[in-house]
C-alpha cells in the first residue's frame, strides 16, 4: 500500500502537484481526480463513474460578450454521451491546492483543455470530493471557461 501511495505522489509531482500529506490523504484525493480526468481524456464513462458519485454535477462559468453564462449538467448526462463522436479530448491540471477536513475535500487547480489537439480554453477547476466507504469520490466540479487566458508553456 505504501508503495502505491509513493508511486501516486511521484506521478503527481510530475504534473506539478504538491507533495502528498504524510498519511497519503492528498495522494488518494488527487488519484480520484486523476482517474476522473483519465476517463474524460479516454472518453470512458466507466472510469469516470468509478471515480465519482452517481449524483454528481458539473457547473461551468463563461463570460461571452460581457454576459455571464452558467451551465449545469449531471455527471449522468456526460457519461451518457462521452463516448460519442471522434473528437479527442485532453484536460490537464497543475499546481493543485488540496483542502481536507474529515471526509470532505476540495481540489482547486488551473487547467487547460484541448479539443482535437488544439487548445480550446483554460481556467480553474474546483473538484469537490467526499470519502465514501473508504474511497474518495468526486461529487461535483465547477470550472471556468477562459479561451483567452491560457498561460504560455502549458
Percent in strands: over 45%
Average pLDDT level: 87
Shape, per Cα inertia axes: globular
Please give the radius of gyration in angstroms: 15 Å
Distance between the termini: 32 Å
Helix and strand sequence: HHHEEHEEEE
Count of beta strands:
6
State the low-pLDDT regions, or none: 1-22
- DSSP summary: helix tally: 4
The biggest beta sheet reads:
6 strands, mixed
Strand order of the largest sheet: 2-1-6-5-4-3
Structural class based on helices, strands and sheet pairing:
alpha+beta
Task: Describe the overall structure.
With 154 residues, the protein is α+β, with helices and mostly antiparallel strands. Helix content is 28%, strand content 47%. α1 packs across α2. It starts with a helix and ends in a 9-residue tail after the last strand.
Defining key terms:
globular; alpha+beta; 154 residues; disordered N terminus; 28% helix
Secondary structure blueprint with pairings:
Elements: H1 2-14, H2 25-41, H3 45-50, E1 52-64, E2 67-74, H4 75-81, E3 89-101, E4 104-115, E5 118-132, E6 135-145
Parallel strand pairs: 1-6
Antiparallel strand pairs: 1-2, 3-4, 4-5, 5-6
What is shown here, in short?
This protein has four helices and six strands; from the N terminus they run αααββαββββ.
Amino acid at each position: 500500500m505504501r508503495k502505491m501511495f509513493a508511486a501516486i505522489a511521484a506521478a503527481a509531482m510530475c504534473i506539478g502537484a504538491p507533495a502528498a500529506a504524510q498519511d497519503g490523504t492528498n495522494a488518494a484525493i488527487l488519484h480520484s481526480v486523476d482517474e476522473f480526468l483519465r476517463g474524460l481524456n479516454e472518453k470512458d464513462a466507466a472510469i469516470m463513474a468509478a471515480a465519482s458519485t452517481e449524483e454528481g454535477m458539473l457547473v461551468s462559468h463563461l463570460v461571452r460578450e460581457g454576459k455571464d453564462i452558467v451551465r449545469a449538467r449531471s455527471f449522468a448526462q456526460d457519461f451518457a454521451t462521452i463516448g460519442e463522436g471522434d473528437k479527442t479530448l485532453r484536460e490537464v491540471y497543475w499546481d493543485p491546492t488540496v483542502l481536507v477536513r474529515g471526509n470532505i475535500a476540495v481540489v482547486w487547480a488551473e487547467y487547460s483543455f484541448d479539443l482535437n489537439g488544439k487548445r480550446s480554453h483554460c481556467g480553474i477547476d474546483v473538484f469537490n470530493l467526499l470519502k465514501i466507504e473508504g474511497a474518495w469520490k468526486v461529487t461535483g466540479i465547477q470550472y471556468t471557461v477562459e479561451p483567452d487566458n491560457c498561460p504560455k508553456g502549458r
